[in-house]
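Could you join me in thinking about how sequence relates to backbone shape in a protein? We need material for that, and I hope you will provide a protein of your own picking. Once you have written the record down, we can walk along the chain together:

…
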Amino acid sequence: MLKEFREFIARGNAMDMAVGIIIGAAFTAIVTSLVDDLVNPLIGIFVGGIDFSAISFGLGEAQFMIGNFINAVIKFLIIAFVVFMLVRTVNRLSRMGRKEEPAAPPAEPAGPTTEELLTEIRDALRARAPE
């Protein structure tokens, strides 16, 4: 069982996934700072200085933190956009790296073409017709 586990960890996919998770966690910290320290104050300027993290309302004993949800949505949109741009760039680079194969010449038809068949039928009908 230990040998199987070692083989699993040594596979490229597991290592790639681990690296992705670690980089993702570090990237999340950067995006959190971006949203909290730059985006929210900028948006606050346009909406009258509202700090989203302070927006909340209570219902009985429950406190609903709407501002935290808005911050989470902004963070998600930023992360989704950055991931989209990365995937788009990688796809473009991979297309540029691949050499396109020349188009194969069109295959010869297996039998006579429609035009050839119609010509034969026309000629046969002319030969039958009395003059």
In short: The CA atoms of residues 20 and 26 lie 10 Å apart. The mean pLDDT is 79. The longest helix spans residues 12-46. The helical segments are 2-10, 12-46, 66-97, 114-128.
